[in-house]
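Bench notes, afternoon.
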Amino acid sequence: MAETQKTKAAQDFVPIKEVRGGVMVLKDDTLVGTMLASSVNFALKSQDEQMAILSQFQNFLNSLDFSVQFFVQSRRLDIRPYIALLEERLTAQTEDLMKIQVQEYIDFIKTFTDRANIMSKHFFVVVPYNPPAVNIRKTVEKTFLGKSELGAKDKDIGFEEHRTQLEQRMSVVEQGLVRCGVRTVPLGTEEAIELLYKQFNPGELEKPITLDR
């Protein structure tokens, strides 16, 4: 009984009802789109370039008529895929000297990463969309008329309409950030689930998300 109550409490803590078409649907029916953003090495820019970036970013924020959220995910660098690749190369080597060099390099990488706290950072932009209250009123009217549940087709149509509005907002954000020198890529369903898993399981290492597409 205690385990069941604990599981239910954990589920209640997560405000997300489902992830559909790359869109997170919250329990209050808010749609949330997430984009992975590239970084800008601001410190290496000249003073004029820095001022231009700040000005563009200020103009971008002032042009928005909806809220957005920026957050950074800092995780310890997962070196395991690289080590696995090196071990494959070691197995494929036929020369003894090359095998020794590759093995020494693997040992060096393992030792270095164990001693140094190497972090990887991912930058995300979260764009929400709240369906207008008129849709809620229509649902209440249908319930009052005896239609307690919307049909699956009606739900799909409503979701697609709302997702279109969300994608328009995400396009505005994308264009604004491009002017600042920042590239963005919207997360798909699997990537969004992976991001949520990492957020709620910070102690586990998973395959990193990249901008390569």
